[in-house]
Design brief:
heterodimer, A: alpha+beta, Flavocytochrome C3, Chain A, domain 1, Methane Monooxygenase Hydroxylase, Chain G, domain 1, 19 strands, about 15% strand, B: about 250 residues, alpha+beta, Ubiquitin-like (UB roll), Fumarate Reductase Iron-sulfur Protein, Chain B, domain 2, two-stranded antiparallel sheet, 7 strands, about 35% helix, binds flavin-adenine dinucleotide, binds iron/sulfur cluster, binds FE2/S2 (inorganic) cluster
Chain lengths: ~650, ~250
């Protein structure tokens, strides 16, 4: 099977330009004859569907929600990066590239990351042209803020609702193409397998979630833009429906899975409050621009936060990482919070939380307002009040969300936060053209493994999803489809469609026929606990081995004791969920296997055996500077392929934020 | 904040499918913590139903953080329940007390047919966007983002309108089932931005015409939509829509 990253030759800065100038093209008449199936219409899928339809391809797009506008991308809060250097603070394409490779702990591909940084500026232009209402300064120009792991302000945002505004932009472009007849949109449909003919992806089997019917859809190429799989941990910041099924089915059909164990644990989330908890809520990283993180200096301190004097507080990020302070990357901030809580300094009733405190910011912004408005004789309370208004404008929706969930007022008491599963850097392995190891099968957005290495920097997922969809795939897909213009539409009566459909059907029947005693939810919870305890923020060989055994046992139990009410041919959310959890269980095993195989600590992958005496991660470049690409062989049986990572433009170094 | 537990009676709309007549069914849930979200309370009911070999209540939800617009329950006669500016998924059980009866129904509107239980079909909202809720700019055609400065307050107002999550609570709350608040939010966003200018007239005419085709009712300025909107979309947007519409109708060349 092909395993070639297809990175173009030549100088880093020119690779993409050269590629675009020489890539094969498909002429407009032929485009009309070529059909593309797109699974997923979040940022990656909607932008790809709109752009490809504009070019003239015939597109069929699928999502499981009732509208493309509800994809999980809608929930992204903080912002999107772009190397515009509007702030004149020394930003450049190279610096964004460098920050991303370093942030990813030197486990991503130089050429891909450079291209990402290169097209980032075009994304902002495109979005503004679509009417995305980014935040602006009084002069009418676009405003920026900082995110973790960088020392420039390159993040564009729309209050705490950036993902919503970007997705609505892509959604409107998509709906415009639907109206023009260039895209056929299938909502409340779930893709349940890829159909391959002679080794090439030729379509999908999808289930109409309202009627339960299985449908066959042909495409000259298939794009999977199905998002991340953080819900394998049960509790995460992802939406309830996020799942791995689309890419997992492709994986079992031959697509290699890249770095499955690279998971991002986000440092600032609202802590778990009880057993009934169904999901965790993120408090955007942008809050670390203005909030300071601390715990009491005294172990087990039970005083209220406001009663703890300044010199009895430990601002541990500022203490440990003076150069980046509260803006260290996510993996570093999460581990530091865990370290403090494990050592007995945690706060709140569970003691598994730290404070995120805005007191200083209220005062700082208040003083700026006083200066701007030329006010005199202002009381301290008034200053703080003015400062609170500024903070409200920046993060109002996040503060409201916090108050609704916890019942506490974050303008008065510091937020309590704790790390939670947030993003999966791993995903289907793709080459420079975003093609998987199955010909004609592409993977975009969070679903692929590319660009973020072992740790993603904040505000870079939105950038990557839109880069893939708006600016990369429209070029790279032509290189493949140019050779497909002679392939006529394959009728879905073809035996490959029939065979795949019958496999999908028998799996659904099998699930329904278990007729055991335990709910899907209960299995999902148990899987999540194994994953969080043994393959979460810190991992070790012993725990990972146990996890693998436990997951295998859970899988047996699932397939013999699951209970699904209702029937197949109706709207049946329990059945939908059962299929997804079945895939999560298999994925969980591979994640543990991958984590066990990688005998180093890098980015979000922290193996307790590999750390410095101060508790910093210890990477092993000599033995692990590669992408793990796993090939599915059989149930519980995978073969590891390695894509060596070559750094020609960046000098790799220990990653320090001190 | 004091936490407490409660026992509740639920009366929930059950309807097998589009053609089924449907009706309210009574349930009981016990030991519900005041810290739970409303949907976590429904999760508990559903787990119990599965255990008893009964079909769980079907309801729409996804993000559970008030942004995707999927959740949609009519709770004790109010769209998204008792809290102001709050989606169903963000409503917490602190809003209720021991012994309460809670009545839960789907959105009701001719343009939102029930699919099952509490789930309705809101695809009419997508079709309204298809009629003109966009700026016609193909990928790659854009000029530099800072070429056209936009007054901060206009940008802020456009953003406030764009914050609509497309949940449909405005329609459910309106005695006429009008979709004016939803449609006006999109019209306003694009009318306030210079980029939206070229298609201003056709946009409002086409979107309003599609809204009528979908059989949403007409707006008689009741204001229930604004009161129940979880994103506090303002009635000023409806006024702006009316101005845009009048202007477009008067000056339209066709
Ligand atoms: C709370 C939160 C906040 C975030 N904030 C930021 C931020 O500020 N900045 C940033 O850069 N990133 C942020 N991220 C990350 C970012 O939002 C995501 O990585 C990104 O939006 C993923 O986009 P996507 O298009 O790949 O997938 P998604 O938006 O998840 O879309 C997936 C699509 O696939 C469809 N789908 C999935 N499986 C199937 C199937 N089997 N059949 C049919 N359809 C299917 C779904 O219906 C959906 O349309 C945040 C993430 C979270 C959880
Ligand atoms: S206007 Fe408000 S109530 Fe209506 S769809 Fe938008 S967010 Fe929902
Ligand atoms: S579930 Fe997303 S808004 Fe309620």
């Amino acid at each position: 099977m092909a395993f070639n990253s297809k990175i173009p030759a030549g100088e880093l800065e020119k690779k993409w330009e050269d590629y675009k100038s020489h890539v094969k093209l498909v002429n407009p008449t032929n485009k009309r004859k070529l059909e593309i199936v797109i699974v997923g219409t979040g940022l990656a899928g909607a932008s790809a569907a709109a752009s490809l339809a504009e070019l003239g391809y015939k597109v069929k797009a699928f999502c499981f929600q009732d509208s493309p506008r509800r994809a999980h991308s809608i929930a992204a809060q903080g912002g999107i990066n772009a190397a515009k250097n509007y702030q004149n603070d020394g930003d450049s394409v190279y610096r964004l590239f460098y920050d991303t490779v370093k942030g990813g702990d030197y486990r991503s591909r130089e050429a891909n990351v450079y291209r990402l940084a290169d097209v980032s500026a075009n994304i902002i232009d495109q979005c503004v042209a679509q009417g995305v209402p980014f935040a602006r300064e009084y002069g009418g120009l676009l405003s920026n803020r900082s995110f973790g792991g960088t020392q420039v302000q390159r993040t564009f945002y729309a209050a705490g609702q950036t993902g919503q505004q970007l997705l609505l932009g892509a959604y409107s472009a998509l709906e415009r193409q639907v109206a023009l007849g260039n895209v056929k949109m299938y909502t409340r449909h779930e893709m349940l397998d890829v159909v391959t003919i002679d080794g090439k992806a030729r379509g999908i089997i999808a289930r109409n979630l309202i009627t339960g019917e299985l449908e066959r859809h042909f495409g000259h190429a298939v794009l999977l833009c199905s998002g991340g799989y953080g819900n394998v941990f049960y509790l995460s910041t992802n939406a309830m429906g996020c799942n791995v099924t689309a890419i997992w089915k492709a994986h079992k059909k031959g697509a290699y899975f890249g770095n499955p164990c690279f998971t991002q644990i986000h440092p600032t989330c609202i802590p778990v409050s009880g057993e009934y908890q169904s999901k965790l809520t993120l408090m955007s990283e942008s809050l670390r621009n203005d909030g300071r993180i601390w715990v009491p200096k005294k172990q087990g301190d039970t005083r209220k936060p406001n009663e703890i004097p300044e010199d009895e507080r430990d601002y541990y990020l500022e203490r440990r990482y003076p150069a980046f302070g509260n803006l260290v990357p996510r993996d570093v901030a999460s581990r530091a919070a865990k370290e403090r809580c494990d050592a007995g300094y945690g706060v709140g009733s569970s003691k598994m939380a730290v404070y995120l405190d805005f007191t200083d910011a209220f005062e700082r912004y208040g003083n700026i307002e006083v200066g701007k408005k030329g006010l005199d004789n202002i009381s301290k309370e008034k200053i703080i009040e003015l400062g609170k208004d500024v903070v409200k404008e920046k993060y109002g929706n996040l503060f409201d969300m916090y108050a609704k969930i916890t019942g506490e007022n974050p303008y008065e008491v510091p937020m309590r936060i704790y790390p939670a599963v947030h993003y999966t850097m791993g995903g289907l392995w793709v080459d420079y053209e975003l093609m998987t190891t199955i010909d004609g099968l592409y993977c975009l957005g969070e679903a692929n493994f590319s660009d973020h290495g072992a740790n993603r920097l904040g505000a870079s997922a939105l950038m990557q999803g839109l880069a893939d969809g708006y600016f990369v795939i429209p070029y790279t897909i032509g290189n493949y489809l140019a050779d497909e213009i002679r392939t006529a539409e394959i009728p879905t009566s073809h035996e490959a469609f029939a065979k795949t459909e019958s496999e999908v059907k028998s799996r659904i029947d099998q699930l329904m026929n278990i007729k055991g005693t335990k709910s899907v939810e209960s299995f999902h919870k148990r899987l999540g606990k194994i994953m969080w305890d043994k393959c979460g923020m810190a991992r070790n060989a012993e725990g990972l081995k146990q996890a693998i055994t436990e997951i295998q046992a859970l899988k047996k139990e699932f397939w013999s004791d699951l209970k699904i009410p209702g029937t197949i041919n109706e709207f049946n959310p329990e059945l939908d969920k059962a299929g997804r959890v079945a895939d999560f269980i298999e994925l969980g095993e591979l994640m543990c296997k991958d984590a066990l195989d990688r005998n180093e600590s890098c980015g979000g992958h922290f193996r307790e055996e590999y750390q410095t005496p101060e508790g910093e991660a210890m990477r092993d470049d000599e033995n692990y500077q590669f992408v793990s690409a796993w090939e599915f062989k059989n149930e519980s049986d995978w073969e590891l392929h390695k894509e060596d990572l070559v750094y020609e433009n960046i000098k790799i170094a220990a990653r320090s934020y001190k | 904040m004091e936490h407490y537990n409660m026992n509740l009676k639920l009366r929930i709309w059950r309807q097998k499918n589009k053609s089924d007549k449907g009706g309210l069914v009574d349930y009981k849930v016990e030991n519900i913590s005041s810290e739970m979200s409303f949907l976590e309370m429904i999760d508990i009911l559903n787990e119990k139903l599965v255990e008893e070999n009964k079909e769980p209540v079907a309801f729409d939800h996804d993000c559970r953080e008030g942004i995707c617009g999927t959740c949609s329950m009519f709770i004790n006669g109010r769209a998204h329940g008792p809290w102001h500016a709050t989606t169903t998924c963000q409503l917490h059980m602190r809003a209720f007390k021991d012994g309460d009866t809670i009545i839960i129904e789907p959105w009701r509107a001719k343009a939102f047919p029930v699919i099952k239980d509490l789930i309705v079909d809101r695809s009419s909202f997508d079709r309204i966007i298809q009629a003109g809720g966009y700026i016609s700019v193909n990928t790659g055609n854009a000029v530099d983002a800072n070429t056209i400065p936009i007054e901060k307050n206009k940008a802020d107002n456009a953003f406030a309108a764009a914050a609509c999550i497309g949940c449909g609570a405005c329609v459910a709350a309106c005695p006429n089932s009008s979709a004016m608040l939803y449609v006006s939010a999109k019209i306003s966003q694009l009318a306030l931005l210079p980029q939206g200018n070229p298609e201003r007239k056709t946009r409002v005419l086409n979107m309003v015409s599609q809204m009528d085709k979908e059989e949403f009712g007409s707006c008689t300025n009741i204001g229930a939509c604004e009161a129940e909107c979880p994103k506090e979309i303002s009635l000023e947007n409806i006024a702006r829509l009316n101005r845009e519409f009048a202007f477009a109708s008067l000056t339209s060349e066709e």
